[in-house]
Amino acid sequence: MSSGDTHPDFATLSQLRDGSLADDDRSRCAAHLAGCAACAARMEWLMRTVDLLRSSELEDAPAALIARAVRLFSPLAAPRPLGVRRRLVALLRSGGAPSPAFGLRGGVSDVRRCFYEAGAFGIDLRLAPHAVAGWDVTGQLLGPTAGGVIHLESGDLRLAAPVSEDGEFRLDGVAPGRYALRCESGDDEIHVEAFDVGG
User: 21 and 84 share a domain?
Assistant: First the structure.
């Protein structure tokens, strides 16, 4: 809080609350709070809020969730030169087994969910029997995405589908087999090396 300030800002009030404000600034801020009802009310609110948060018995968020939230709000890396594509290999983080059929009596649904991670990207992949024949391969590309194209490849078979602005994609009636998935989004190319559809 400089001598020209009339009201302490939030950072100054927070430092006063934590006891980290310099002696001169602490005296000046305390004198101001004694004569300013609005700033005294802000300080009281800050003290109550900090005390409430410190006394909370809520569990901390999982470390992976915190790390993902930090990545989402981190500044983006400097853009790469045009024509340069970054290749990311995705690793399976969870899934593979059929999902429980919540809300239904007994059993397990036929839907298989897998979650892959590659750098700042995640791929939520779902495999379900198609109504007529084959399998539906659906999912969502998560992360710094603005659309793109998803490719599903097995031997000479090449399938492609657009990735929406929300990161969603869908391929219907895919024949059972072993596939590789490749997603092109901006300057990034994400690869899921091999997974089984059906069977």
Answer: no
